[in-house]
Design a protein that fits this description.
The chain is α/β, with parallel strands linked by helices. The protein contains seven helices and seven strands. The radius of gyration is 15 Å and the shape is globular. The termini are far apart.
Length: 190
C-alpha cells in the first residue's frame, strides 16, 4: 500500500474567532499555529505524508518552511479545501485531519491510517462533527454541524473509529474550558 497522505486544511492562523470571548487575537493565533504544528508533526511521525491546504500566505510560508506540500485553497469553505487536498493527492490513500486536535498523537493517526489498508475510516468529533475521514479517490465532503452522519451516509462501509485523541477538537469556548478544567490542554509552546 502506498504511503498515506494526510490532508490538513488551515484557513489562517487568525481564525478561531468563536474563542474571542476567552482569547485575544494573538492568543488565538498562538493556539491555532501550535495545534496545527502538533497535528502535522504527529502525522509525519506516524509515517503519513503531510499536505497543507490553505489560501493564506502566512500559513503557506509556514508550511513550506517545514517542508510540507502546500495545496492552494479556493477559499470556498472546508468542503472545497478538503476536496482540493484529496484531488491533489490523487488516487492514493488519504486522511483529512482537522488542525485543531489538542490531544492528537502519532499512534492515534497511525491506527486510523492502518484502516485505509482495507477501506475507509471516519472519526466523529465529540459534538457530532467529523475530525478525521479517510479513504481513496474522490469524496463528497459535507462538513458542518452533524457532518459525521452525512459522511457516514456517503461511505456506509467506513469503519467508525472512536479514539479520544482524534475526537476532541477546539471549536468553542466550552471545548477550551473543558480541556483546561480536565488538565488536558497541552502546552501552547510549539
Amino acid at each position: 500500500m502506498p504511503r498515506s497522505a494526510m490532508v490538513v486544511p488551515i484557513r489562517s492562523f487568525t481564525g478561531m474567532t468563536r474563542l474571542g470571548g476567552r482569547l485575544d487575537a494573538d492568543e488565538r493565533a498562538a493556539l491555532t499555529s501550535t495545534l496545527a504544528a502538533r497535528v502535522l508533526r504527529a502525522g509525519a511521525e506516524a509515517g503519513l505524508e503531510p499536505w497543507v491546504v490553505t489560501s493564506d500566505r502566512q500559513v503557506g510560508t509556514w508550511a513550506q518552511d517545514r517542508s510540507f506540500t502546500v495545496v492552494k485553497d479556493s477559499g470556498m469553505g472546508l468542503d472545497a479545501a478538503a476536496d482540493a487536498g484529496v484531488r491533489a493527492v490523487g488516487a492514493g490513500p488519504w486522511l483529512v485531519v482537522h488542525a485543531d486536535l489538542p490531544l492528537v498523537d502519532a499512534s492515534a493517526l497511525s491506527r486510523a491510517a492502518s484502516i485505509l489498508d482495507t477501506g475507509a475510516v471516519i472519526v466523529p468529533s465529540i459534538d457530532g462533527g467529523t475530525t478525521v475521514i479517510g479513504g481513496t479517490g474522490p469524496f463528497a465532503f459535507s462538513y458542518g454541524p452533524g457532518s459525521f452522519h452525512r459522511h457516514l451516509a456517503r461511505r456506509p462501509a467506513a469503519v467508525v473509529w472512536i479514539d479520544p485523541a482524534l475526537m476532541i477538537d477546539i471549536d468553542t469556548i466550552a471545548h477550551l474550558d473543558a480541556l483546561v478544567t480536565l488538565g488536558s490542554m497541552p502546552s501552547l509552546s510549539p
